[in-house]
C-alpha cells in the first residue's frame, strides 16, 4: 500500500486580528493591539499552499468558521439579534468580545490529532478533534472543527472521526502540534510520540498527559507504538507553548532543539533502537529564545517525490544570521533534508503561528485520498478561486476599534457566504 502525506491548511479568516489572547505565546503578546491585515494574511497562507502544490504534494484546505461567534452570548443570557448582543457584549466585556472575533482556526495543527491507518487497530485513519480547553478563543473552534472533519472525511470505511475530549484543563488537548509520528516510511507502522507539558511556574502547560493518553486510546494506536514524552519545562517557560515550536518529525527524521524534551538524550537513544534508520538532527547552537523568535522548528518538513526532504521555513529565519547559518548546516549535512523553501507568512507569525501551525498532516493511501471530499483538495483552479474570493471579500486592514464595528461583522458574513457558495 502506497501512503503519502496530505497537508490541510487553515484558510485565514476575514476577522484576523491581534488581540493578544494566547497566554504563553510570545509573538501573540508582543503584537497585541496592533493593526492586522486579513487580506494579506489569507493570501500569504494561500501562497504557501501553492508552494507545496508546485512541489507535487497534495494540498487541502479547511475553511474558517463564521466570526464573530454569537452562540456563546445566547448561552450566557444575552437576548436580541446578532447586532444587538454583539454591541452589548463589546461594551460589557471587551476581552470576552475579542475572544468571539478570533480567527485562530487558521492554525490547523491544533484542529485534531491524526492517527495513520497503519498505526490503528482497525486500519482506518483516526481524527480526534482537539478540545483546545486552555484558551476560550480556541475552544470555540472545537465543535465546528469536528463538523468540518466529518464533512471532509465522511467515508467511514477509511476514516473515524472522534468528538473532542471533555472540556476542562484536566483533559486539555491541543492536537497534532503535540504529536509526532516517526516511521521508516509513511506506509509503514510508525511510533506515535505524544509530547505533554508538565507544571511550570511561568506559563500553562497546554497538553495534559491524560489527554494524550485518551487520544491514543480513541485512535486505537497499538500500545507498543505509543510513547509519552514530557516537554522541557524551560522550553515552555521561554515561549514554546506547543511541541512544534521546538521539534518537527517527518518519517524517519527528527529535527529538534537540544532542549525540546526532558531527558532528551535517553529518548533519542530509545527511538534509535525502535526505528530502523532513524536520523535525529539535534540543534544545540542556537538558544531557545532564538528558536522561538525565528520559528525554525515550526517549519514543515516534507518528503518530496524523489524521497529527499524539504524544510518549508518562515522568512523570519533569515533575520538572525546564526539561525540562517544553522539552516544551511542542516541542508548541507548528512541527512535527507537538502532543500530550504522560505515562505512569507508574516501575518500568521505575528500572532504566533508559523508554517507548521497552519497545517494538519494527514497520511493517506490512494484509495483513502479518493474517498476525501474533493472540494477540499486544491488544484490550480480551486486555488485561484480562493485567491479571488479573498481579494473580493476580506478586509484590507483591521484595527482594535474596527472589531466593534457592525460593518466589519457584516463583511465577515458576506465572506462566509461567498466561501460556502464556492463550496457548493
Automatic annotation (TrEMBL):
Homology family: Belongs to the succinylarginine dihydrolase family.
InterPro entries: AstB_sf, SuccinylArg_d-Hdrlase_AstB
GO biological processes: L-arginine catabolic process to L-glutamate; L-arginine catabolic process to succinate
Cited function: Catalyzes the hydrolysis of N(2)-succinylarginine into N(2)-succinylornithine, ammonia and CO(2).
Residues the record marks as active site: 174, 242, 357
Hydrolase recorded as keyword: yes
Entry-linked SUPFAM superfamilies: Pentein (SSF55909)
EC number per UniProt: 3.5.3.23
Recorded metabolic or biological pathway in which this protein acts: Amino-acid degradation; L-arginine degradation via AST pathway; L-glutamate and succinate from L-arginine: step 2/5
Record carries keyword Translocase: no
Ligand binding (substrate): 19-28, 110, 137-138, 206, 244, 351
Lineage top rank: taxon: Bacteria
Protein's name in the database: N-succinylarginine dihydrolase
Gene3D superfamilies: Succinylarginine dihydrolase
Known catalytic reactions: N(2)-succinyl-L-arginine + 2 H2O + 2 H(+) = N(2)-succinyl-L-ornithine + 2 NH4(+) + CO2
Keywords: Arginine metabolism, Hydrolase
Assembly information from the UniProt record: Homodimer.
GO molecular function, one term: N-succinylarginine dihydrolase activity
HAMAP family from the UniProt entry: AstB
